[in-house]
Amino acid sequence: MRASNLLRSVLYVPGDNERAMNKAPGLSVDAIIYDLEDGVAPASKQAARANVCAAVAGIDRGQRVTAIRINDLASNEGADDLQAALIAGPDALVLPKVQTVQDIEQLGARIDAFGDRKSGCDVLIWAMIETPLAILNIKEITARSHMKGSRPGSHLGALLMGTNDLAKHTGVAPDMMSSWLMDCVLAAKAYGLPVIDGVYNDYSDQQGFVAACEQGRDMGFDGKTLIHPAQIASANQAFAPSQKQLQEACEVVALFEQSGHEHMNVLELDGRMVERLHYLMAKKTIKTADLIKEQTE
Ligand code: COA
Ligand code: MG
Predict the structure, then answer these.
(1) 194 touches ligand 1 (CB under 6 Å)
(2) CA-to-CA distance for 113 and 117, rounded, in angstroms?
(3) Distance from residue 69's CA to the centre of ligand 2 (Å)
(4) Among protein residues, the one whose CA lies closest to atom 12 of ligand 1
(5) pLDDT tens-digit series, residues 68-97
(6) Of 71, 147, 179, 289, whose CA is between 20 and 30 Å from 131?
């Protein structure tokens, strides 16, 4: 996985749902999470593990990011999931029910131990933030990602919000969680980590879903976790630069690159102030739009 990978749409695919498993590779999502945890019934865990790991090992991924959500490492299934998933070699392992930084370090150490035998393993950890303790510990959890290299056992590569579990653990309705979500967004941004919003359960409510995506985007999320193919197009659109944003970005770039403006830090555009930081932001917007274009061609 490259740092430039888009994560606008991140689809959960239950590992015991054969039809969904077959459909997933043909869908226009930025990332797929093959699920062995809560999307899979207890009686189907073993079969799901075999299906998912065979599918991931055999996939020609192209630009798409592929992740496997394993069961909690303390559960009966977790250790077997981890072993099989490491052999299959996804881009990321999704760790559910994270509570403390030690959970991340423990999985990181297991990845490192596997890597030592297989001459290095660069699989990332995507931490599910879905318990009250994870919200309370978010600064410490994200700070660890910053220490990659100097501190073995990290590998943290993204935060994924688990709003259904948070609601279950706290009794707080998802609509009332915005301060917790914003704390996670801020912590992720402080350490350069992507942060992905929680799911929207009512997959037949398109209007509500579009509003949820737009709210997530305005809160600073990089994308949304999805449960159904009907949600993909809206997420891809909401988390991409709009035509208007792209046009404005091109104007800002053209202005700063105009001859004579090389050493200017503040300029005027249509009666507004634009600073060099807007030029850098505009270049980033154009780069994202180019990446999306490249990916959809
Ligand atoms: N990934 C890939 N394909 C999916 C999918 C998913 N998450 N959800 C549905 N599909 C496919 C179906 O297989 C079907 O395709 P097909 O006819 O070619 O087989 C098509 O999309 C339409 O599906 P539909 O009939 O509307 O839904 P469903 O009744 O098959 O499934 C759910 C509804 C909610 C059971 C299913 O979407 C699902 O399991 N989603 C993921 C839930 C999950 O992972 N939860 C845990 C994380 S929060
Ligand atoms: Mg969960």
Answers:
(1) no
(2) 7
(3) 10
(4) 20
(5) 999 999 998 999 999 999 999 999 999 999
(6) 147
Same domain membership, residue 263 and residue 119: no
* For the CA of 134, the nearest ligand: 2
Q: Say if residues 119 and 75 touch (Cβ distance below 8 Å).
A: no
Does 265 lie in the same domain as 220?
A: no
- Whether residue 2 is contained in a domain is answered as no
pLDDT tens, position by position, 201-249: 999 999 999 999 999 999 999 999 999 999 999 999 999 999 999 999 9
Is residue 67 located within the same domain as residue 145?
Answer: yes
**Domain check: are 66 and 91 in the same one?**
yes
> Residue 3: inside a domain, yes or no?
no
| 106 contact partners, CB below 8 Å, separation of at least 6 | 73, 153
CATH of the domain at 218: 3.20.20.60
Structural domain boundaries enclosing 223: 9-238
Q: Which residues, other chains included, contact 50 with Cβ-Cβ below 8 Å and sequence gap of 6+?
A: 84
Q: Dmax of the chain from CA atoms? A: 69
Specify if 4 maps to a domain.
Answer: no
Residue 163 in tokens: 């709003």
